[in-house]
Amino acid sequence: QVQLVESGGGLVQAGGSLRLSCAASGRTLSAYAMGWFRQAPGKEREFVGGISWSGARTYYADSVKGRFTISRDNAKNTVYLQMNSLKPEDTAVYYCAADSSYCSPYGCHDPRVYDYWGQGTQVTVTS
């Protein structure tokens, strides 16, 4: 079992930055690819980006590419989501998730491949 806890959310003005953290306990995160998702009120959960178990590969949704950066520190059992140039449409609850199956069979963008989820952290961007 892996327990994931997100932190770092908050209220920020458009154009600002936030860094979210996802801390794991119970098992080492180095065995898992990690994803970040978000869900705005009334909308489906949306893939934000992901990172391979080693950190060598990262991938992002088009909506955040160039603004968001995912990194990980396996020694600290933590994954990060650096969010820059935030927009009001980035407002959502952000979740991290761990996957042990190499994003099989649906792909890393699909929430169904992830085994463990955090409880989420709210990000609100004001205009």
Identify the overall geometry.
Answer: globular
- What's the helix-strand series? EEEEEEEEEEE
Q: Count the helices. How many? A: 0
Helix content: under 10%
Distance between the termini: 40 Å
Q: What's the alpha carbon Rg, rounded to whole Å?
A: 13 Å
Q: Taking all residues together, what is the mean pLDDT?
A: 95
Could you state the oligomeric state of the chains shown? single chain
Which percent band covers the strand fraction? over 45%
Number of strands: 11
Low-confidence stretches: none
Biggest β-sheet: count, sense, barrel?
7 strands, mixed
Structural class: mainly beta
Descriptive notes:
- There is one protein chain.
- About 0% of the residues lie in helices and about 50% in strands.
- With about 130 residues, the chain is mainly beta.
- The strands form two sheets. Strands 2, 4, 5, 6, 9, 10 and 11 form a seven-stranded mixed β-sheet that branches. Strands 1-3-8-7 form a four-stranded antiparallel β-sheet, with no helix packed on it.
- It starts with a strand and ends with a strand.
- The mean pLDDT is about 95.
What order do the helices and strands come in, and which of them pair?
Blueprint lengths: L2 E5 L2 E4 L4 E8 L7 E7 L6 E6 L6 E3 L7 E6 L4 E6 L8 E8 L16 E2 L3 E6 L1
Parallel strand pairs: 2-11
Antiparallel strand pairs: 1-3, 3-8, 4-5, 4-9, 5-6, 7-8, 9-10, 9-11
List descriptors.
single chain, 127 residues, 4-stranded antiparallel beta sheet, globular
Compact summary:
With 127 residues, the protein is mainly beta.
